């Protein structure tokens, strides 16, 4: 090993220790929350990741709450952080204007200068554009495209197969829907080039952000460069079409953002738009694929619930011809199916926590939270609280018969308050369209009835959920 390598290793060890000492000295006069920052730079990251992967994260959160109370400090994913727990904490985090919606340091490095990194007028402009692009009025236009992608996927990957593994298929379907509906990129070589790199990028999203060769983060960082190059090429093509007077009516993300980028004080660059496109990919990919996977997982164990979903979907299919695409009205009638989805989101939320960054020194319950610190809340703390949801381990979609009976800021799979996830309507629609065709065309049973799951960081069945398929005999006048 040459001297330069020795120096690099010593520097890599020295900088985190120095940063840790500086942090302790800088905030020595603050009334920080109880807890330990732990080992420099890494802190509790490995401990939490280990709990997620062993599916003991709820116990991990409860252990910290029992030891330190509902507010505690730590070092997490490269940043000093404060964990908050409970409905009051959720309300504080989702409603406080001084807490900027953010990702972990790893996510920010991988995705670039997206909406999570912006503030002020620039944030308002980009958020407004994203909210408009993903609004219910726009999602209505996307239903037919989603329908086409789901039919193509099911025919190619499910029909004629005796067994399938659900999670990788669900992930690929969500990726294809985003590419087609949001990016306007149909099946082909460009989409295939993105798919493999994108999986590598997602795996790196909650790794420790060290650019050391062959680590998960390093592989993800290199994949993000390749993804950015492809998306930049798509954006440039759309920009050229707009300059030539074509494509102004297109409803894909790149054309929409390029056409509206001058509608504010900040002129969005192509790089800004590419960075936000990567953010949309990550945000939309994991949530819906995990939700669909665990809906099938639960429905295998809950035949009565499956029967009610089947009855609802059969009724919708009776009013359609064999080649008719689903419409927005059809999706709006899938009320019980969505209750099942919400109960799935409660029991197994696709993301383990919501992250924010303090834009200035703030105070919560008498504790100081310094500017720049990460603040996060974990969804399972309220989702599995027996004081909020009776028999929390029981799968019961009836909990959502009356949403007003659920206390505010207790069910938060998409965030809450004024900063609700702008893509929740898109996620709801793609989930319901997918479930319609799976329920209508197949009966299934898990190959391994005792299959458990882990979180890495999103929940995933240990085997990916392999299931045995049987074609379903449709009722009279129903068409899949």
TrEMBL record:
Top-level lineage group: Eukaryota
Pfam families in UniProt: p450 (PF00067)
Cited Gene3D superfamilies: Cytochrome P450
BP-aspect Gene Ontology terms: sterol metabolic process
Family per similarity comment: Belongs to the cytochrome P450 family.
Name this protein carries in UniProt: Cytochrome P450
InterPro entries: Cyt_P450, Cyt_P450_CS, Cyt_P450_E_grp-I, Cyt_P450_sf
Cofactor(s) required for function per UniProt: heme
Residues spanning the signal sequence: 1-24
GO molecular function: heme binding; iron ion binding; monooxygenase activity; oxidoreductase activity, acting on paired donors, with incorporation or reduction of molecular oxygen
Keywords recorded for this protein, A-Z: Heme, Iron, Membrane, Metal-binding, Monooxygenase, Oxidoreductase, Signal, Transmembrane, Transmembrane helix
UniProt binding sites for heme: 421
């Amino acid at each position: 090993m040459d001297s330069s390598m020795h120096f690099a290793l010593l520097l890599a060890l020295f900088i985190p220790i120095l940063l840790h000492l500086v942090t302790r000295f800088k905030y020595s006069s603050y009334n920080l929350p109880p807890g330990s920052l732990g080992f420099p730079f890494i802190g509790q990251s490995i401990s939490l990741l280990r709990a997620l992967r062993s599916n003991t994260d709820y116990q991990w959160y409860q252990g910290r709450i029992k030891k330190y109370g509902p507010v505690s400090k730590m070092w997490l994913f490269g940043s000093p952080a404060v964990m908050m727990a409970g409905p009051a904490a959720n309300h504080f985090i989702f409603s406080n204007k001084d807490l900027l919606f953010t990702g972990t340091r790893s996510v920010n490095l991988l995705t670039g200068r997206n909406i999570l990194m912006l503030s002020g007028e620039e944030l308002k402009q980009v958020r407004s554009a994203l909210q408009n692009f993903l609004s219910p009025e726009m999602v209505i236009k996307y239903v037919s495209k989603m329908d086409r992608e789901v039919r193509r996927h099911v025919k190619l990957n499910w029909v004629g197969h005796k067994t399938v593994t659900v999670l990788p298929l669900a992930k690929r379907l969500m990726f294809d829907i985003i590419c087609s509906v949001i990016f306007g990129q149909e099946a082909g070589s460009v989409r295939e080039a993105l798919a493999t790199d994108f999986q590598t990028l997602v795996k790196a999203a909650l790794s420790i952000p060290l650019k050391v060769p062959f680590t998960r983060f390093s592989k993800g960082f290199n994949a993000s460069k390749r993804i950015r190059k492809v998306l930049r090429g798509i954006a440039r093509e759309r920009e050229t079409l707009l300059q030539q007077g074509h494509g102004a009516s297109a409803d894909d993300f790149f054309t929409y953002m390029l056409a509206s980028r001058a509608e504010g004080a900040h002129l969005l660059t192509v790089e800004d738009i590419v960075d936000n496109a990567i953010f949309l990919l990550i945000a939309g990919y994991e949530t819906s694929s995990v939700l669909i996977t665990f809906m099938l997982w639960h429905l295998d164990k809950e035949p009565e619930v499956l029967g009610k979903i089947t009855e609802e979907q059969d009724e919708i299919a009776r009013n359609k011809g064999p080649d008719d695409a689903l419409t927005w009205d059809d999706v709006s009638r899938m009320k019980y199916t969505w209750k099942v989805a919400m109960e799935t989101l409660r029991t197994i939320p696709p993301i383990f926590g919501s992250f924010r960054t303090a834009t200035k020194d703030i105070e919560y319950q008498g504790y100081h939270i310094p500017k720049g610190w990460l603040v996060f809340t974990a969804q399972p703390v309220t989702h599995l609280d027996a004081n909020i949801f009776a028999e929390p381990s029981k799968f019961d979609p009836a909990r959502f018969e009356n949403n007003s009976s659920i206390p505010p800021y207790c069910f938060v799979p998409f965030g809450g308050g004024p900063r609700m996830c702008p893509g929740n309507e898109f996620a709801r629609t793609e989930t319901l369209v997918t479930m319609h065709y799976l329920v209508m065309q197949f009966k299934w049973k898990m190959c391994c009835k005792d299959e458990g799951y882990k979180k890495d960081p999103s929940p995933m069945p240990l085997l990916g959920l392999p299931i045995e398929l049987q074609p379903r005999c449709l009722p009279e006048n129903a068409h899949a």
